[in-house]
């Protein structure tokens, strides 16, 4: 399994993914699940993947080679808008399903894939989409300024409570890492290292891309600081007066 999260903020985008793949308890591997298409100053598009690794890799490879959309062959390097990029990615998912779906069904394997696609093209607004296995998608908005795929339930509560469009990129990085740490502690199918991408709105280029390993000092600080803060918070809560002493 995996966990990927994208924050849609006024200042830009924060994208974070783990790298663990799990095909059984004795077959655990590390694969990057973050893919980036960048023409500096013109476009920056990032895709985070969850689900079946073979399916997600096939989708990305099709997007590199070209996918037919409305009678024309396109890649992420030439689509005119982020909406068209989401449509193209959905079409790539459907194309992989058409090719591999029957064989997967014959083996009793579910067509399992979910993607986050975020970025900005030219002077158009930045956008962030979540694309489902059927090829359809939803978009992050000011009301819902983050999207998640994979094992999202453990890392969602902190984001629900805190993230708003006005959250800064720096705070967004901190919150994404806390969300990921909560997931790492509760689900063994999500694992290190992590891939982080920060995009500042209006730049059309990657602002920061970093692989975070177990020995990253700041991530250790976040993990320990958050755990200590939670312990202090619950200890500071008053005891209910209706519980026998």
Distance between the termini: 44 Å
The CATH topology is given as: Glutamine Phosphoribosylpyrophosphate, subunit 1, domain 1
> What is the fourth-level CATH superfamily?
Aminohydrolase, N-terminal nucleophile (Ntn) domain
Main β sheet profile: 5 strands, antiparallel
Description of the structure:
- The structure is a single chain.
- By secondary structure, the chain is an alpha+beta fold.
- The protein has one domain: Glutamine Phosphoribosylpyrophosphate, subunit 1, domain 1.
- The chain is 34% helix and 30% strand.
- The chain contains five helices and 14 strands.
- It has helices spanning 53-65, 82-106, 156-162, 169-186, 217-236, and strands spanning 3-9, 12-17, 20-22, 28-30, 34-39, 43-51, 67-69, 72-74, 113-121, 127-131, 137-139, 146-150, 194-200, 208-212.
- A five-stranded antiparallel beta sheet has the order 12-1-2-13-14, with helices on one face. A five-stranded antiparallel beta sheet has the order 5-6-9-10-11, with helices on one face.
- Helix 1 packs across helix 2, helix 3 (156-162) packs antiparallel against helix 4 (169-186) and helix 4 crosses helix 5 (217-236).
- The radius of gyration is 19 Å and the shape is globular.
- The termini are far apart.
């Amino acid at each position: 399994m995996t966990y990927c999260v994208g924050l849609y903020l006024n200042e830009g985008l924060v994208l974070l993914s783990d790298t663990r793949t799990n095909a059984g308890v004795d077959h655990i591997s590390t694969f990057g699940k973050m893919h980036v298409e960048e023409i500096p100053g013109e476009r920056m598009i990032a895709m985070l993947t969850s689900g079946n690794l073979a399916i997600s890799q096939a989708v990305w490879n099709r997007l590199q080679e070209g996918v037919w959309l409305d009678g024309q062959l396109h890649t992420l390097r030439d689509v005119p808008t982020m909406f068209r990029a989401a449509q193209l990615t959905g079409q790539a998912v459907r194309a992989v399903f058409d090719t591999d779906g029957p064989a997967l069904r014959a083996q009793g394997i579910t067509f399992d894939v979910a993607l986050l696609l975020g970025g900005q093209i030219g002077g158009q607004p930045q956008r962030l989409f979540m694309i489902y296995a059927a090829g359809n998608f939803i978009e992050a908005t000011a009301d819902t300024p983050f999207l998640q795929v994979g094992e999202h339930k453990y890392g969602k509560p902190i984001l629900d409570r805190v993230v708003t469009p006005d959250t800064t990129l720096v705070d967004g990085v901190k919150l994404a890492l806390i969300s990921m740490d909560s997931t790492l502690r509760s689900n063994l199918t999500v694992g290190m290292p992590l891939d982080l991408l920060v995009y500042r709105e209006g730049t059309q280029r990657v602002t920061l891309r970093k692989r975070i390993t177990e020995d990253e000092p700041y991530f250790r600080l976040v993990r320990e600081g958050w755990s200590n803060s939670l312990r202090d918070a619950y200890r500071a809560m008053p005891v209910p007066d209706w519980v026998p002493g």
